[in-house]
Amino acid sequence: MNVERNLTMLTDFYELTMAGGYFENGMKDMIATFDMFYRRNPDKGGFAIMAGLEQVIEYLDRLSFTDEDIRFLRSKKIFSEEFLEYLADFQFTCDVWAVEEGTPIFPNEPIITVRGPIIQAQLVETMILLTVNHQSLIATKASRIVRAANGRSIMEFGSRRAHSYDGAIYGARAAYIGGCTGTACTIADRDFAIPALGTMAHSWIQSFDSEYEAFCAYAKRYPNSCTLLVDTYNVLQSGIPNAIKAFDNILKPLGCRPKGIRIDSGDITYLSKKARKMLDDAGYEDCKICASNSLDEYIIADMLRQGAPVDSFGVGERLITASSEPVFGGVYKVVSVNKNGTEIPKIKISENVAKITNPCFKNLYRLYDIDTNKAIADVITLFDEEIDDTKPYSIFDPEHTWKRKTITNFKAVKIRRKIFDKGNLIYKMPNIEEIKDRCKNQLETLWDEVKRFENPHTYYVDLSQKLWEEKQKLLNF
């Protein structure tokens, strides 16, 4: 998205107060490692979809404090001039690793790691979290809805219900990564090449003297892409009969076929069945039926189970806001610091077991069965630790350690890529179609049991033996 916005000051204020403290305590050059991870899948699902990395890259690549930023911080009267001079000359020099967009991800694994001077690594916390949290949430919800549609198209129709214009634009991007075929958000087409879709609202129908006149006017203007909204007055008594009449009198003489009709209210399962028969009887078996109106994965699945002959769905607020669970919950925690060349692991301990972090500078592997190409488990290791997939490998539950399994005939793949090297961008960002294809292909590597909406099989994210031992040392200190 070619929009130049300096978002350096989009931080929590404590990131700046801590930065000032690190500076004054002579710690500005101390190397620290921070991980972003999340603790629980949205909607009690089996996984999430990684999204938002492109915007994180854009942000990190443009980090700099403007003169206006420095004047504002000076006005707070709590920062030293030496620290403000440091910010005025700020350059991002960290290393960054990340899981690529479109990849299925799981709780507690480091999906982004930032390693570098502690002031820099701390400063980027908020933007990384808000960007990845939002887009991963929407991509995950989109994936659920697309899977519920079982091969039928899902169009993202939620712009006007999104939480701000950025929510609409980047939500459309995330929804497309998750599998939607297009969006109602025109600017997302301009900036991301996501197909913009849409025909008419009820106001078009109401602006004419009759529904039939409105249909005819639209058919004349868009004969090759004519989709008519048929529920303004009465779907079966007015909308479908008038649509058929307009098809007969306007499109047929032009040698054109209707693209479809859309139903936006009422009992869409019942109405779509009746509409399908009426269209078929009139010779328009190829006319598609689109359904919209407060849909989600559960409603769509129910409609299809009940035999609704719907060919595509327009999904709005329940997708763009992920209204069933609108918080992704990713966190950003320090996991090690390096003092005088010595790596010192760090852990957060809590009475809430879910909030105990995994310490150390780490790497992330996905293990695949060679025969099926299905993912077996993910393993978090120490960063320089290699998994030798030519030999049997033992995995175990990091909490219930007696649950162990030795796997053979597998391949171990590091699923994170290095994005920045000492602040220099070294990763070539794929285009949106490549990201969408990755998502589709990667989902094929998950067992159907992991993809269930209700009570999905738990996909295991294990710790290597060495990492588990390091964690136990800190817990038992």
The CATH architecture of the largest domain would be: Alpha-Beta Barrel
* Distance between the ends: 48 Å
CA radius of gyration: 26 Å
Number of domains: 2
Strand content: 15-25%
Description:
The chain is α/β, with parallel strands linked by helices and 477 residues long. The chain has 2 domains: 13-138 and 326-475, nicotinate phosphoribosyltransferase (Alpha-Beta Barrel); 199-293, TIM Barrel (Alpha-Beta Barrel). It has 16 helices and 21 strands. Strand 12 (330-339) and strand 13 form a beta hairpin. The protein is globular, with a radius of gyration of 26 Å. It starts with 12 loop residues before the first helix and ends with a helix. The mean pLDDT is 96.
Short description:
The chain is α/β, with parallel strands linked by helices and 477 residues long.
Brief descriptors of the model:
477 residues; alpha/beta; nicotinate phosphoribosyltransferase; TIM Barrel; seven-stranded antiparallel sheet; 21 strands; 36% helix; globular
List the helices and strands and how they pair.
Elements: H1 13-24, E1 31-38, E2 48-49, H2 53-61, H3 67-75, H4 81-88, E3 95-99, E4 104-105, E5 112-117, H5 118-123, H6 125-149, E6 153-156, H7 165-177, E7 182-183, H8 186-192, H9 202-206, H10 211-221, E8 227-229, H11 235-251, E9 260-263, H12 268-281, E10 288-291, H13 297-305, E11 312-315, H14 317-320, E12 330-339, E13 342-345, E14 362-369, E15 375-382, E16 393-396, E17 404-407, E18 410-414, E19 416-421, E20 424-425, H15 432-443, E21 461-463, H16 465-475
Parallel strand pairs: 6-7, 6-11, 8-9, 9-10, 10-11, 15-21
Antiparallel strand pairs: 1-5, 1-12, 2-4, 3-5, 3-19, 12-13, 14-15, 14-18, 16-17, 19-20
Helix pairs in contact: 2-6, 3-4, 6-7, 6-13, 10-11, 11-12
